[in-house]
């Protein structure tokens, strides 16, 4: 598959857990089917923040990668987020998902310690040079505290296997600079609530948690921008952002999961220490579902 074939709209896959925190395989399969059959997404981003990935063991991550590939087969594109504080785990997962046939891997910038850019670059080189695959940098400064500037993106992109970035930041000046500087690299918008603005800047795709439920509306925003129908796109972004604001206020992943449950998809519990929805939050999620998704 050519790099440009990786463009498109990807759901950051939600993961269903049982009440005891174990993986709910049937629930995960149902979420994947819902994304393919109802949301009509181009691909899935597996093992991201939305997948509560950083709360899981290596074996659990591997099992989720296996389930996603087994359920999705080659019907849609699959990107595996393998990044970890433990670069050796990241390498192990990069090898594992490449062997499974994932179309690309992605890795969050290493976090917690204040790594220098040289260290960050070496982390990426170690991961991607261990496999015959392509890598998308996962930049999410508001959670990691790691900011990468235009020149540093250029340093990373010198490795031809590092083909793009998932840009989860509100810095649209930086996004514009990166777009202009690296027209051949793939940029995925990471904040669903800023999809319109990112589309105007000509990103190559988007990866988001809310597409698990709002995927059809999200795609329409992208299409309207491409057709130059900015007023209509803005109206849809307004509705989308009313939805996202209500979801964020009620608890992001637990509300998305409750909304899926209301559609008969067993999205299950969250993984501790992440809290699952309380009765009051479930009630509010029902109102959100009825207002925006029915
Ligand atoms: O890694 C992932 O699961 C993502 O793709 C994350 C994605 O950028 C989401 N960010 C987080 C922290 O969940 C967004 O889709 C986000 O949930 C949404 O824009 C609402 O703020």
From TrEMBL:
It is an enzyme of class 4 (lyase). Pyruvate binds at residues 50, 207. Its main location: cytoplasm. It is found in: Cytoplasm. Pfam families: DHDPS. Homotetramer. This is N-acetylneuraminate lyase.
